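Recall that a protein's primary structure is simply its ordered list of amino acids. Everything else, from secondary elements to tertiary packing, is in principle encoded there. The following example makes that idea concrete.
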Amino acid sequence: MIGMALSALVLAGCATDDAATRAASRDEALARRRRETAAFFATNAAPLTLDRALGVARARTLHLTQASLDATLAGIRKDTAFSAFLPRLDASYMYAAADTDLGSSPVLMGRSLTLGDSVETAGLTLTQPIFVPNAWLLFFEAKHLEKAQQYRLARAKQLLDVQVTAQFYESAVADELIRAYVSETNSTTALLRQVEGLRSEGLATEPDLARVKAKLLSDVHALKSAEVKAELARARLADILRFEPGPPTLRVDGASMTRALQHPRMLSLEDAVMAALTNRLDLFAADRLTKVREIEIYRALTEWLPDIAVTGGGNYANQDLLATSHFWSGGVVGALSLFKGFQSVNDYRKAKEERKAEYEMLENRMMAVVISVIDAYRRRALAEEAATVARAVQASARLDHETAKARFDEGRETFSNLMDKISAREAATVRAASAEYARALAEIVFRTALGERALDADAQWGEAPLAQ
C-alpha cells in the first residue's frame, strides 16, 4: 500500500507543473530573443547591408541546426570507430565470503582450491587488435560519411544565403515602394490643390477633380499596402536572423545588393554547367556516399576473414588458508565465423545493389544540377534584360510626365492626358525599383547554382572552401 501511494505521489508531481514549465520555458526564450535583438541593434543602428545580413544569419540562424547536428554526430561516429586501432584495457575484481566451509570449488585461476572463509581475485588484461578488417573499414566509412555531412552543411549555408537574400530583396523592394508611393502621394496632393484652385476659377471640371481625388486615395492605399509588405518582409528576415519578429529598428540597405555584385559571372551556358559540376558541394557529398557503398562491399567480404588480436595481463588470487598467487599471461586470440546462415553472402549482394543504386542517384543529382544551372542562367538573362527595359521605360515616362506637366501649366495639354502620364510615371518607377533588385537576386541565385560564393565581398565573413 505504501509503495502504491508513493508511486501515485511521484506521478502526480511529474504531471503538475508540465504546462507551467512549458510556458515558463517559452517566455524565457522569447525574452532572451528580445534581449538579444535589443543588444544587437543598440550597437548596429545603421541599415543592415546584405553582406552583414548573410554573416549574421550564418552565426545566429536556427535553420542550420539539423545540418550542423548531422555534421557533429558524423564526427563523433568517426572518433568512435577509430577505437578499432587502439588497445583495450579491462580490469576485474571479485571478493566472496562465507560463514561455513563450502567444500571443493571449481578450477579458479588454473588451480583447484578448497574454499575457507573468503576468497579475493583480481585481473588486468590488455588486448591489442592486429587484424580486424571489418572494424578498420568501418572507420574509413565513417571518415567519408563525416566529409559528406560537412559538404552538406556547407551547401546548406549556401542555400541559407539565398533565403536571406530573397527576404532582403523583399524588404528592399518594399522600402523602395514606400518611397515611391510617398513621393506619388505628395505629388498627387499638390496636384489636388492645384486642380481645386482651377476648379474654383472654372478652368477644371468636376470629373477632373474627382479623378485626382480617386488617384490620391489609390496612392494612399498603395502606400499602406507597401508598409504592410515591408513589415512582413522584415519579420521574415528577422526570423532567419534569429531576432524578434519585425523589430522597427531593422532596416536594410537595398543599394548594398547591387554594390556587392559589381562583377557578374560572365560565362557561357556550357562553361556554367561545367563549373557547377565541378564546384557543387552536394555533388561532393554524393561522391563520398558512393565511396561508402564501395567500402560496404569490402566490409561484406571481410566476414570470411578472421579477427586476430594479441592479449596479455596479470592475475592475482588470495584465499584464506592458502598462499597468495599472482602470475602474468599472454597469447594470441583469433576468431573466424564459419557459417551464419548465408548472412555473409546476402550482405555482399545487398552492398552491391546499394552501390549500383548510389551511382544511379549520383547521375540523377548531376542532371538535376544541370537543369538548375540552365534555369538560373536563363532567369538571370531575363532579369538583366528586364532591368534594362525598366530603366529605359522609367526615363521615358519621367520625360513624358515633365513635358505633359509643362504643357498643362501653359494650357496646351488636357488634364486627362496629364493624369495618364502621372500614372505611367508611377508604374515605371515601381517597376524599375523592383527590376534592379530582381537582377541582383537572380545573380546570387545563379552563383549559388554554380556552387560559388554569393557576393563579391564574401571573403570577409564566409568560410574557406572545403577540400575534396
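The radius of gyration is 37 Å. The beta strands are 88-97, 104-108, 111-114, 118-131, 307-319, 325-335.
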